[in-house]
Amino acid sequence: MRVFLTGASGFVGANMARRLLKEGHEVHLLLREGSNTWRLEDVLGEMNVHRGDICDLGQLTSAVKEAAPQIVIHMGTHGAYPTVQTDFDKIFSTNMIGMANLLKACDAVRYECFINTSSSSEYGLVDKPMSEKDLPMPVNYYGATKAGATVLCQTHTRITDAPIVNVRLFSVYGPYEEKIRLVADTVKKCLLGEPLIFTKATQKRDFIYTTDVENAYLELMKSPQLKGEVLNIGTGTQYSVRHIVERIIERTGTTQKPQWGVIPTWRFEAQNWVADMGKAHSLLKWRAEVSLENGVGKTVDWMKKNMGYYGGGKA
Known about the structure:
Strands 3-2-1-4-5-6-10 form a seven-stranded parallel beta sheet, sandwiched between helices. A two-stranded parallel ribbon has the order 7-9. It has a two-stranded antiparallel ribbon with strand order 8-11. Helix content is 37%, strand content 15%. It is of the alpha/beta class.
């Protein structure tokens, strides 16, 4: 099928682009001029690249018309890395105006399924499994704008009957992950023998390996009947940051000892973060299959071969 994908230069988007290509789909990417495409450098020539910015309606409309997609997967976003992506205007323009632009541009083509990538950050701080029935209570602008985009998509479906489904991703990890994120950063430090400094690391997260996310999207592409729905994409099981760090230490065999409690905990840091997966299991008939141990092993093995991307010599 012809698939139009935004956000392909990012971690999750690049893995999705590669998977779509592997599955035999005709992949069309929207990439800004000057995008850093290191995650795609060996396969970019096999894809159709459309240059444009999601915040520029004219460029975006031209790209969508040229691609004439059957499937639209929206993964373009800004603000997911709160320590470095703090520009409110850019967060708002990308996540809200960009979302509105994409809906407008895609109205001109007859697509079969549109998957909007939302975030578990929409939920905010809760002390129970996060359910799609919960009222969003985000604690940052990223979560707020992603929640706004979800509502916008649902409203667009109600008005136009557009086949749009919204998915809230939990803590994705795996190959090509940004080096400032927990798993990639910890693996890098273990492999390079760098100090391992953390918070108390008692906070828990629903870690999901990237191939499980890709499998969910492939199922969603065949499920236009889910239009208007919001679905969690996680495992339904949470592990502490300390637990996953210890698994990484075991897998890498580092002699470095972790230093717990050195870094202060962020005041909005959630201690529990896990998906209620009942709805996705029921409606999508999909479940995450990769265990944390296997996912960590796959990630470590990949990073050992690709440390050039993470400051450890030539890849």
